[in-house]
């Protein structure tokens, strides 16, 4: 297939606020060995994109400098050695960067088929959150059916995904969020209880409910000590971001006496091989949850690609619930 040489993209012209995202014309990426080129129809917007835009989350070596960690569309070119896909296949993919563009390139093993019955718009919102939640909550945190799971930021893209996946696994789910309305969204999604962190002592309430076997936290700061108290014996705290800061004063005696585990990870810098492993687990375990209606994308809003600055304003203000997506192709 002959591709055009240049494409529309949104680039970060300097570290800063949403207005540093500007339209540009750049060369269409070329597929190297084992890679595919996708004509993107939609791209998901995630908080790490905003961190990258602000200069706080640099792309890993070799990745596109353009923002955008996930998208969905049609495979339009195959690099040497590709076996998993054919031109014309509809896929959604975890991208190393470069999703705010008409075309993106990724390793063939990081793309998944668009789930049966789902449109490209919803599918574009799956990879970043599903890979992050599955790898941290299940592979790292070892959440099992019947265990208690607490997620902070329950109405975030990550939170809405984590609540549904944990529930579908058979866990008892608890969540925190910043308003009573958001807490209602969390219980509607399957949380047994959701606590407004502005008015409720969630750490105490989690302990009263027996303590959490796994906590997924993106807040950090003052939450770290309170998370430790909220864990059940042998509990696991998995840290995926530090919205309130990465430093805390912690009594580690509790970690020792109650056999707690504190861990965490970031998805983007991990090896192609590790991301491929996560992709296979997501396809094996999460795609069937989607097929049986146990997991749906909670959609907040959509914008055109050139409205990416507005999408970033939206994700950085408290109003949104669920995922924000960019429309790239009509
Ligand atoms: N480690 C990784 O690989 C990885 C991958 C993807 C995302 N992440 C991180 O996961 C988080 C969620 O990502 P997302 O894309 O789903 O973003 P998002 O939808 O913007 O979610 C951010 C959430 O954080 C909550 N929040 C913000 N400030 C808070 C505070 N001071 N105290 C308590 N809650 C606060 C907000 O909830 P309220 O409005 O209810 O306050 C909001 O729901 C981000 O921090 C992102 O960087 C990490």
Description:
There is one protein chain. With 330 residues, the chain is of the alpha/beta class. Helices cover 30% and strands 28% of the residues. It contains ten helices and 15 strands. The strands form three sheets. Strands 3, 4, 5, 6, 7, 14 and 15 form a seven-stranded mixed β-sheet that branches. The structure holds NADP nicotinamide-adenine-dinucleotide phosphate. NADP nicotinamide-adenine-dinucleotide phosphate binds at residues 46-48, 51, 128, 132, 152-153, 155-159, 177-178, 182, 197, 218-219, 240-241, 243-244, 265-267, 315, 318.
Keywords, separated by commas or semicolons:
330 residues, alpha/beta, 7-stranded mixed beta sheet, 28% strand, binds NADP nicotinamide-adenine-dinucleotide phosphate
Topology:
Blueprint: E1 6-12, E2 21-27, E3 35-45, H1 47-53, E4 70-78, E5 90-94, E6 103-107, E7 111-113, H2 120-123, H3 127-140, E8 148-151, H4 157-169, E9 172-177, H5 180-189, E10 193-196, H6 202-208, E11 212-217, H7 223-230, E12 231-239, H8 252-257, E13 261-264, H9 272-291, E14 299-304, H10 308-316, E15 323-327
Parallel strand pairs: 8-9, 8-11, 9-10, 11-12, 12-13, 14-15
Antiparallel strand pairs: 1-2, 3-4, 3-6, 3-15, 4-5, 5-7
Helix pairs in contact: 3-4, 3-9, 6-7
This protein binds NADP nicotinamide-adenine-dinucleotide phosphate.
Residues 46-48, 51, 128, 132, 152-153, 155-159, 177-178, 182, 197, 218-219, 240-241, 243-244, 265-267, 315, 318 line the site of NADP nicotinamide-adenine-dinucleotide phosphate (NAP).
Q: How would you summarize this macromolecular structure in one to three sentences?
A:
The chain has 330 residues and is α/β, with parallel strands linked by helices. The protein is built from 10 helices and 15 strands. Helices cover 30% and strands 28% of the residues.
